[in-house]
Amino acid sequence: MLATPYYAVIFTSLLKDGGHAEYEAVAQRMVELAALQEGFLGVESARTSAGLGITVSYWQDKESIRRWREHALHQIAIERGQKEWYRHYCLRICKVEYQRCF
Predict the structure, then answer these.
(1) Is 65 left (phi over 0), alpha (psi -120 to 50) or beta?
(2) pTM exceeding the 0.70 threshold for the entire prediction
(3) Topology of 6-96 in CATH?
């Protein structure tokens, strides 16, 4: 269990039809790369067969999130997502002050 407070970046998306194999490969590479970044705490992700997905990444602080957002390879993936893969997406950043997990 993560020590509070920390930050959650909630990314929801709806994929366009087709091209999901390449998207999945790039998404997996981004998770691997994010895990190497200072301040990264973890990630959880799920996607339906209809293409609706949610990924929640956890970060130590807002500065860590900013650095990840500005990472050059992440920027390329963001641009490709906007142009090629996403029909719709939404990004939310939240401060987690309390958690209860079992």
Answers:
(1) alpha
(2) yes
(3) Alpha-Beta Plaits (3.30.70)
